[in-house]
Design a protein that fits this description.
This protein is an all-alpha fold and 208 residues long. It has 11 helices and no strands. Helix 1 (4-17) runs antiparallel to helix 2, helix 7 packs antiparallel against helix 8 and helix 9 packs parallel to helix 11 (185-201). The chain is elongated.
């Protein structure tokens, strides 16, 4: 519920209890959780450290491939925000490979979206658009309406930046509809806000 300090305290306690545990999957999952908490609080160096810890357990990619895939994805996103494009792309592509091998569709979709973000921040707009579309396809295979909504919202933002307002409106409307069904209120609000701004830009004040 957004109480990251409490979540971190709990994760630290679990990690301490697992220090001598032979359960590689559980220990890696705990390190992954700590990496995700760190990213949520913009502590990207710490996120990289914790994700690296998750990936350092013996044979983790064989024992827990889905966890390893998500750890790669988490580290890749942290690298994106640390402006290390090469490391981000390398990790996110490896996350995609691991997710596919593990048939982890949700993580595959997440990795596609994260790779799209890396491309977008680096100015590779065409690559970002392709990656967001691949994220939509992967999210649909995973029956993840929220993931589809987020990817379509981001596609709308790209279309808006390109000046294609018709495409932007189409993507924002689809994102808002899907997010409502998935009960992702924050995505609904972002999509509707973007729609309102586009409408005002077009002079459609009554609709906005």
């Amino acid at each position: 519920k957004g109480d990251y300090a409490a979540a971190r305290t709990h994760a630290d306690g679990v990690a301490a209890a697992l220090e001598s545990s032979p359960d590689v999957a559980l220990a890696a999952e705990c390190a992954l959780l700590r990496a995700k908490i760190a990213s949520r609080t913009n502590a990207y160096e710490q996120a990289i450290e914790e994700a690296t810890r998750a990936l350092s357990f013996p044979q983790v990619e064989r024992i827990a491939p889905a966890i390893a895939a998500e750890a790669r994805q988490a580290r890749g996103v942290a690298y994106v925000y640390r402006d290390d494009d090469a490391a981000a792309v390398r990790d996110l592509r490896e996350a995609l490979t691991l997710a596919r091998e593990a048939s982890a569709r949700r993580i595959e979709a997440l990795a596609h979206s994260s790779l799209a973000l890396a491309h977008q921040r680096a100015g590779r707009v065409s690559d970002a658009r392709i990656a967001y579309r691949e994220a939509i396809e992967a999210s649909e295979r995973a029956n993840d309406a929220a993931g589809v909504a987020t990817a379509r919202l981001n596609l709308g933002t790209l279309a808006w930046s390109d000046g294609d307002l018709a495409a932007a409106i189409r993507e924002f409307e689809a994102a808002a509809d899907l997010a409502r069904r998935a009960q992702k209120q924050s995505t609904v609000e972002r999509a509707l806000t973007n729609l309102a701004v586009v409408d005002m830009h077009l002079g459609r004040y009554a609709r906005a």
